[in-house]
Amino acid sequence: ASGPDGARRADILAALTQDAVFVASPAGSIIRANKRAEELTGRPLESLLGVPLDSLFYPREVVAGAVAAAAGLQDQRLEPSAAGLHGRQVGPVSRIDAFLLEESGSCLRVSLSLAPVLARSGTAAELVAVATPQASQEPLREELQGARALATLVAAAVSDAIALVDSSGVVVMANPAMARMLGFDDPLDCIGLRVDSLAAGGNLQDALSKALQRGRPVGADLYLAGPGTATTRVRGRVLPAGDVQGASPRVLLVLEQPAPEPAKAPGEKALPALRRAVEAAIQDTRCQLDAAVESLVQVAAQAFSGMGVGLVALGGQRPAAAWRGFSESLGRSLVSSVVARLARTNKPEESTPLIVPDLASYAGRGDDPALVASLVAEGWRSCVFMPLMLAGRVLGMFVVASTEPQRQIVVAAPLEQFALYLSMALSLLVERRLTEGEKRWFEQFAEFSNEVAVTPELDKLVGLVAREAVRVFEADWAVVYLVQPGHEGLEVAANAEAEKRSERKAPIPAEVFPVAREALEQTALIVRLVTTNGADRTLAAARFSTDGEATGVLVVGWDEVRVLDDLAKRALELVARRVGVAIHHARAYEEEASRVSRMKAAAEEAMEVEARVRSLLWAASAAAELTDLNRVLWTLTDAGLRTVNVEEIRIYLADHEAGVLRGATVGRAPDVVAQLEDTIPLQRTASVRADAALSEAPYLVSVVEEAGKSYETALIPLRTHAALVGLLEEVIQTQDGPWRRERCASCACSPAWQPWLLTGRAWMPCERLWSGPCRMSCARRCHPSARIRNCY
To answer: Cβ–Cβ contacts within 10 Å for residue 154, how many?
Structure first.
């Protein structure tokens, strides 16, 4: 029953329903609609006919996909319930939650049911779409109003400058940060401005076109010239912004606030001049290799003043070389030696910098004993051989020599940075060609290298690298992996995605791990296609290395298939090399900070020990009038007890002639009386360190008794506290008599001062205790076997 009667019945049913009914052709154009469809869309039937069905709904791409799937449906085995309209077969029904766009510009949330009506041949004869309005639209309107208010609040609160730009490049909305960046007081003043009139340079127009064409975020780098403000270089992102009312396409422009200029680290002042010289040599393609090497050596000699520099470049029929500060014979010997070294080690993993801090001690060793001997003969004390590499090739070697043994440490940072610029310069000069793209890559990464070189914190460094890779390579995502000591494999240190930035630590994704692992094991750039969830994805990876040791890997990915050209590969590898150097400096910075912290703690501890020792020395001066050894030891232990705040303390004194320790004990309780304890053999002391020390000179050993447990708390060499040594030695010899003044048994120094600390006069024991020269007038060495006496 597919005749006119069946069609009339269908029209009657469509007129009675409260749902909007659309009948479309297999191509998706509307051919019939009911009265309810006219009411909900706000458009007469004449304006609906011929209109694509998917253009009335949002999201349009979802409805268009369902229409295309229904139109392409062929005859298939259907369930009995699928038979319906006019006796024809109805295909599977697709149900979608969508918005029906009204003529007034508002939208209505509907439940859309879409099904094909199949002809007898099995093809789709018509498409029927039924849009059922939701029960209540009030929650939707409240939700939309709340979302708009929240979006406005967020746009006003963020520090980044945000503007909504239409397809013609006109600003239709701006937040307060954008107004301030452009020099306006009110964001309304920005509306109607054309972005090309604000940008004094950069790639903003190109970024807008790419974002509209590709439908995905694109990086932007531009110079803004707002009213009343100076031209400012800023970076940003251009993100496509869909419009549910079906208006012209729009994009969201997000600009970062310009960061303050980073402070130059010590040793980086020479880098701008070196970079300009390298750029000049690169851009002058008419320059011969010999002349270019000569000019680069001149700049290096000015930067590393007072040092000898030499450059040997491999290219053409013969190597090009130049040097400053070396004699003619030494320069020729240097060239022949470097060429021989490069011929032997033309492998990336073997071409690491050779640093010789002391040439004199290095003589006779290494691969070039004759060269080292020549350097030493001409007065050079230290030397650095820096191989120049790019794209897995050894291009030459840069040599710096100094008359100071440790001078190469001072110039390490600019030397490594200069070697990077020099490597690219030699590569382009040897190939004798330079494209505009190569100039652009070099300018971008030369500037990025300076920013990386002054970033000491590793976390900030890897985040900077990932974000820069996303911007420069226009990639969808980039991840930096670092080799962490003590961990197996790799860990994510930071990442930057197309729409957001984040720094996190997480396991390595399964699809990325093989590429990262291979990049760590190889020196050259790794580019590979990986299939993930049925979609092809391009991954490019480059290894970070420091002195030939892998420290991490940079992985850049695209959602679409893209082939990296040689220029992009070279640029990515250059970034990896520079970041490897920066990681080396960052770790050295952290180690230096840790070392300074330890030195500070040691200094504080030394000051505390000095205060305690000073207290004991005052106790020794108080005991100077005592002649009984028990009383002397008791006085010292009592002072030590008050100083270190313990329950009990002992002091032992070595008697080397008897080979024993004599000791006294004192407690905090008032009824504890100091007693001269039994002698203890030196071999029975608990500390091996104490045995070794006591075998050389008298030492003060303090042991604390607490809760029945004895442990050593101090081992103070008495020879460093001269007054205490002299006092105790004299007490041992004169326990039952007055003080005696004797001449030194070896040097026979005449007595000059009284041995009383309370008199305030200088007094010291014989320097025999450490077999050094006598500090008195005789300036002789005391015989180590003589009996201890005092030099006055």
So the answer is: 11
